[in-house]
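Sorry, can you check?
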Amino acid sequence: MYWVAGTLIGCIVGFLIPFDLEGVEFAMTALFTVIAVEQCRNPAARIPALIGLGCAAVSLILFGPEGMLIPALAAIVLLLLSLRPLLDTEKRRK
């Protein structure tokens, strides 16, 4: 309930307070680039990063730039959930 209430309050406040979104695209791109680089540096996190990259690339090819997001995210979630036992055992070995 607190998550839904916080989201609702955030939407209402965000609608009432004008906010300039200039530069947010760059900041978000930089944020996700840093996250990706950190995942590639961590050997235990490389497989999930490659799964994400692969699913995004396949979805981009199949659905194009406008329709790729939902299929890519669904494929990533399904693959990570199905491979969780394997990924957890790799973490324990290291």
Remarks:
- The helical segments are 2-16, 24-41, 46-67, 69-82, 84-93.
- The longest helix spans residues 46-67.
- The chain has five helices and no strands.
